[in-house]
Amino acid sequence: MISIIITTYKEPKTIGKAIESFLRQDIKDIEILVVAPDKETLDVAKKYEKVKIIKEPVKAGKSAAINMAIKYVSQKSEIVILSDGDVYVSKNSLSNLLHFFNNKKIGAVSGNPVSLNQKNNKYGYWAYLLTRIADLRRRRAVKAKKRFFCSGYLFAIRKKLLPKLPKELLSEDGYISHKVYEQGYSIAYSPKSEVFVNYPTNFNDWIIQKKRSAGGYNQNYKILGVKMRSFTSESIGFFDFFKFVSSLREFFWLIQLFLARIYLWLVIYRDINIKKKKSGEIWQRVESTK
């Protein structure tokens, strides 16, 4: 039995496609659990007979939703797959994820986020570039037998390794990944397990999304004492970005991306170290991805 947990909030337009993409997989012995606090999303999810509905009493964040959902997972399940209500997976994504678990040393497997945005504009190009860089770095990490972290958009984990998540956690994927390594297991990467994602289409939403993810890694450093991501670590492999430049226009967009990342890290430093903002203040909904 494989359990799929889809965490979602106010995504009635996308949750159906997310569910259907899992129902079309070639793995039959699965259960799908949809966790949400809002009626609109759950009303759509209820139309699918094989879906188990879990209503959160209040909107408390993704980590709280996962903690709640795991209580409803079948006792027969050995593998839990985590995904979101505003993405969908490619054909055979699950089988490509699951075959790695034949190796008993593998504790979790990351999927491969792919941008749905058109790359003929700046924000679409940024999404394309950053997802391809992430793919490249995960492939290199696997080859070099170095640690890397799962993508929160799609990953699978042995149920026994899934920890209880702290409240107000911003980056559950980084936290869970660290806990997998901490328990003596490795993480694998499945490039064929594609998960299709809409990324922000304006600068304000881009900052909100990246502040949430990058800020989450900063938060994990304070919780776990392990530095997962920083401006310095992101600067490593600087010249890899130029491999994905095919025109003068894309070159200028790339330079703008570098400047935007510098600004992002300054904002994160200000919010966390100067303004002492809590995670609830940092986490904001990104409307342009819905």
Task: Describe, in plain words, how this protein is organized in 3D.
- With 290 residues, this protein is of the alpha/beta class.
- Helix content is 42%, strand content 19%.
- It has helices at residues 15-23, 39-45, 62-69, 93-98, 122-144, 172-182, 203-224, 231-235, 248-274, 279-282, and strands at 2-7, 30-36, 51-55, 79-84, 87-89, 106-115, 154-158, 186-197.
- It has an 8-stranded mixed sheet with strand order 3-2-1-4-7-6-8-5, with helices on both faces.
- β1 (2-7), α1 and β2 form a beta-alpha-beta unit.
- α7 crosses α9 (248-274).
- The longest helix has 27 residues, at 248-274.
- The protein is globular and about 50 Å long.
- The two termini are 31 Å apart.
Question: Topology of this protein?
Answer:
Layout: E1 2-7, H1 15-23, E2 30-36, H2 39-45, E3 51-55, H3 62-69, E4 79-84, E5 87-89, H4 93-98, E6 106-115, H5 122-144, E7 154-158, H6 172-182, E8 186-197, H7 203-224, H8 231-235, H9 248-274, H10 279-282
Parallel strand pairs: 1-2, 1-4, 2-3, 6-8
Antiparallel strand pairs: 4-7, 5-8, 6-7
Query: What is the count of β-strands?
Result: 8
Strand content: 15-25%
| Rounded mean pLDDT score | 89
Count up the helices.
10
- In terms of per-residue confidence, which ranges show pLDDT below 50 for 5 or more consecutive residues? none
What is the terminal separation in angstroms?
31 Å
Percent helix among the residues? 40-55%
> Nearest-angstrom radius of gyration?
18 Å
Major pleated sheet: 8 strands, mixed
Strand order of the largest sheet: 3-2-1-4-7-6-8-5
Shape: globular
Oligomerization category of the chains in this entry: single chain
The string of secondary-structure elements, in order, is: EHEHEHEEHEHEHEHHHH
Instruction: Look at the helices and sheets and give the structural class.
Output: alpha/beta
